[in-house]
Amino acid sequence: MRHHHDHRQLSRTAEHRRALLRSLVTALFEYERIETTVAKAKETRRVAERMITYAKRNNLHSRRLVARVVQDEDVAKKLFDTIASWYATRPGGYTRILKTRRRLGDGGELGILELVKTEDQKEADRKARAARAEAKEQAAEAKGKGKEKAEAKAAEAAEKAEAKAKPEAKVKPEVKAEPKVPKKPVPAKEKAARERAKPTPEAAVPEAAPEAVPEAAPRPAPAVAPKPEKKPAKEKKGGGILGRVLKRKGQPPESDGSEKKK
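The structure corresponding to this sequence follows.
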């Protein structure tokens, strides 16, 4: 029998599951639309709709109950001031789940959990999104223009620095040519006196011829000692009676194999 099985455990401990639901509910009220698995979305929907019901009461006790789950002060303020007024006349059904796809890897079924809004609210959201996109584009353009201006300023600064670094060409002052003074003619007497005072050139002494250096006598070739002549090898005498017989007849003795092998 299925007693006390009123929720999904989501393969987590009690503390982990409670923390997970708190973060999902806070994200739902902050962004008004989240994507998660269908099982988590169904568990989150139960807690989120209870928090909206508490916010519609708007008393101290309900604020304390909401603060136990929604632990972000800004999100809790948005819940009481903005979201609760959307469902003032609605008795329930504040959220919806839209199944989207299956996750790659484990094949988990994903879905979108969002707050239910009227057509006027949806149109206002579309206008707000368009305004945000336009502001983002304008900021990007301004950033690009700012980059261009900064690059132009940097180029100008670099040109000025290069101009300062180059040494200025020094202009040489013009030198005025002095007028030539004509030389006075020297009288003949002074010329004759200068020629007498000049020293007479000494007779050129012939240079002595360089002494001839005697050539070195050639060195005698080293004496080579004569190589000693090789003595003819002694003939081995034949042994045994057969050798002596052949010697008498005048024939060379043959080896009879009586010599010992080395």
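The first helix runs from residue 14 to 31.
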